[in-house]
Amino acid sequence: MLLITSADDYLGYCITSHLSQFTALCPDMRVLCQETTAKLPWLRNFAKKGIDVLPVNPEHPHHLSKAMRSINQVILIMSNHPDRVEYCQRICNVASKSGVKSIIFLSHQGAQSEQHQALYDYGLVENHLVSMQQQQQDMNWVILRLELIQQYFHLWSHQVEVSGIMALPLNSDTELCPIDISDVCAVIAVLALQQDGSFATCLNEYHAGQVYTLTGPEAVTSKSIVSMMSDATMYKLHRYLMVRPMDTAYYLTDLRHNIWFDARLKKERSAVYLDQEEFGYRTKALCLPNDVQIQTFLDYFNWINKTMGSVHVEHVEVITKVKSRTLQAYFHENSISFKPRV
Questions:
Q1: pTM
Q2: How many CB atoms within 10 Å of residue 272?
Q3: What is the mean pLDDT of the chain?
């Protein structure tokens, strides 16, 4: 069986939704969520498809031991809860003792930057996995360091709708390579599935112990992002504004009180109970960012500003044998969300 952690967070939802399109796989999947979020509509949808949805208390060792029963592989997703590092390390320890063969860990670009604590949280889990394998050779891992996910721009769509401005704490010439969430899911499908379409019992030797950087197909700047929005929406007055990190934090925090964005989330959560589109998860914002995720965004933007941006790495294409989706394709697919109300 395959275990996916943090299915109550955005990444967990997308990965589970992608893999659940293969109906025959659903009975061999188990997803974890916090007990307080067990009634989310997409979790109910997963249960309806035959996936084992298991609410757990991260502090309770028996809950995690129960979760690992019959599990061969774990897709470890860093949640946005304050104690996320300890939770991930605890899952790794229980998985090791329970005979799990391999762990696929979704990390983040800049994970080894000790100057950015929200990013270094990922680095601490990476280091824990490496040290565990040195002590126990029969459990393998692969680390996927994700660039900024294109779908996170959904969170800025309201700002663009209202003002026609994309405001980010990025220098205008800093390059980033956002990756589409469906490309992340495609990479995981390759790692987790065998050629006959069933779940693998362990990682392929070729991937075991590797660290992959998953990026989009091209580096873009804030100016080119605005140009892509304009091309997709046919609205030529989009502008870019560089703002302070605290301004971005204020904007993302205020989304919690924004009635228009709240209406969008309610509509999406209502639709997600059916979840019949193959890549429907690409078009959904679904979750409001909490303080931990907002700080992760700010640390990432600061990291690429200081390192002069990120570069395209071909690991997605090497693993999936398919070219990754462009940011322009994202804006075309979601153009209605970025068209200003004028």
A1: 0.95
A2: 21
A3: 92
